[in-house]
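In this supplementary section we document a worked example of the pipeline. Step one takes a protein sequence of length 98 as its only input; no multiple sequence alignment statistics are reported here. Step two produces a three-dimensional model, which step three serialises into structure tokens for compact storage. The input and output of this example are shown verbatim.
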Amino acid sequence: MLNHKGYIGSVEFDDEDEAFHGKVIGIRDVVNFQGISVEELKKAFIDSVEDYLEFCAERGEEPEKPYSGKFVLRLSEKGHRLISTATQLSNKSLNESR
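The serialised model returned by step three reads:
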């Protein structure tokens, strides 16, 4: 796993091509990279992330952030009520990040 500016790269080795292929995970946009050596792969990953950020800036768009901090969870009505009641009794909100 590779990490640059919070973007995570997933890597696989292709035995047929004898090369590493990777992609940035955690975003909907497609950002790929590849390399023959580990050093080349790391450089290609960093370059791809930087190219993605530059491309977004040129278009005046905000780049996708790898993780927003939101986590959606489906609960039963009873589970939702129990958690909501517990947070209200402790003077907190379900949306507090603590």
